[in-house]
Amino acid sequence: MHIGPFRNMCETTDLILGFLTKNNLDKTEKGHKEIYLSDPKHTDPKNWKTVVRFTLKE
Fold first, then answer.
1. For the CA atoms of the chain, what is the radius of gyration?
2. Structure letter (DSSP) for residue 26
3. Which residues belong to any copy of the GyrI-like small molecule binding domain (predicted)?
4. Where are the domains of the chain?
5. Using one digit for the tens of pLDDT, what is the confidence trace for 36-54?
6. Hey, how many other C-beta atoms are within 10 angstroms of the C-beta on 48?
7. pTM of the full predicted structure?
8. CB atoms within 10 A of CB 31
């Protein structure tokens, strides 16, 4: 999960990709999906929560 403004999302995806590489896990797609849990209209950007999902090969 990414917590913070969208401009810092690359840091989170880099951490996840590093974890996947270290653990020999392969993605099925090039990209990822994001699920936004916070409403940017009512939440301070430093508290935005976003689920970052990669689909993995079995």
1. 13
2. -
3. 1-53
4. 2-53
5. 999 999 999 999 999 999 9
6. 19
7. 0.84
8. 9
